[in-house]
Amino acid sequence: MEQFKGQPRLPKFAVPKRYDIRLKPDLAACKFAGSVAIDLDVVSETKFIVLNAAELSVTGAAVSFTPKASSQVLEPCKVDLIEQDQILVLEFGQTLPIGLGVLAIGFEGTLNDRMKGFYRSKYEHNGEKKNMAKSLAAYIKKHACSNAKTEDLWAALEEGSGEPVNKLMNSWTKQKGYPVVSVSIKDQKLEFEQTQFLSSGSQGDGQWIVPITLCCGSYEARKNFLLQDRSTSINADGAPSWIKISNKVARIAADATPELMDNIKQFFINLFQYSAEKLGWEPKQGESHLDAMLRGEILTALAVFGHEETLKEASRRFNAFLEDRNTPFLPPDTRR
Domain Aminopeptidase N-like N-terminal, which positions (predicted)? Predict the structure, then answer.
């Protein structure tokens, strides 16, 4: 099996056609079991099958290959999971028959907290690590074979986290619009203020509970808090060289110098330009619906950031559209 180590690509003597994967997570124990049936096309003589795999437990008794041309079930004589290359190598005692077959594998693993593979949701709040999976497991167990309301889930998450989840979620699901959170620095303090954003442009009286994470001069020292009032202020920890503010659900509008904003706009223009040039303005034959959707989003983003060439081309195509509503110059997917 040494010949498969350190290779950048999987060997091509067996080609997967379809995966049928089943997973059974144990949220309380943070583990999972699963099985996969892979429709495999063996295209050249081989005793090996090599697959991508990482952090799984697989035994020879849980693996079999059944050629579709016969009812014979072949079991590997050796199973080797090479962690450094993240591959699973199966060695059989005889050469596999050319053609289609089904490779069946049973496996077990751990729900990790590294945002990798099949992972659990874990977060840190004020220095304390918390695991939402246990709260979900308790919720599922409590309401198994019975009816449950949305508030029952919020209550389970609130009990596990110690945070006002029910009140927080109601602020997001039971009113229209979105919050805009403005941030400014005054007297070594960060001042946060939230207002309601409505697409109509009018002002609203909505108020949200907004989870916010901020880093002052170091990614190692993070603060998490809930913005529950219309405005609040917190200490900026001296005079840090930089401050990063982010969250998962709210739109943050931070006060910045015009020069900094110009640099940010140029950064995103450079980021989107390659995709825009690749996608172009015109639909391409055989492209996926995702490409068609992405074209409109990318061109819109470039226009919003003030990319001069995009704005000129958009204006030209829009004028052509005004003169002839059937013109192909402005496809429906690019209209906003």
Answer: 15-133
